Amino acid sequence: MTDNVENLILEHLRGIRSDVASLTAKVDTLTLRMGSLEEHVAGLRRDLALIHGDMAIMSHRLDLH
Fold it and tell me: Which three-class secondary structure string do you get for the chain?
C-alpha cells in the first residue's frame, strides 16, 4: 500500500513538473514579446516627439511671415 501511495505522489509530482516547465517556457516567450512591444512603444513616442518638434519649427516659421 505504501508503494502505491509513493508511486501516486511521484506521478503527480512529475505531472506538476511538466506543467511548470510548460508555463516557464510560455512566460519566457511572453517576456520577450513584451520587451519587443516596449521597444516599439518607445520608438513611437520618440517619433511623436520629433513630429511635435517639427510642428513647433513650422509654427515658428509661419509666425515670422
Answer: CHHHHHHHHHHHHHHHHHHHHHHHHHHHHHHHHHHHHHHHHHHHHHHHHHHHHHHHHHHHHHHHC
Rounded to whole angstroms, the Cα distance separating 26 from 34 reads 12
| CA–CA gap between residue 46 and residue 60 (Å, rounded) | 21
Classify 8 in phi/psi space as left (phi over 0), alpha (psi -120 to 50) or beta. alpha
pTM for the full model? 0.65
Name the phi and psi angles at 12, rounded to 5: -65, -40
Residue pLDDT, tens place only, 29-59: 999 999 999 999 999 999 999 999 999 999 9
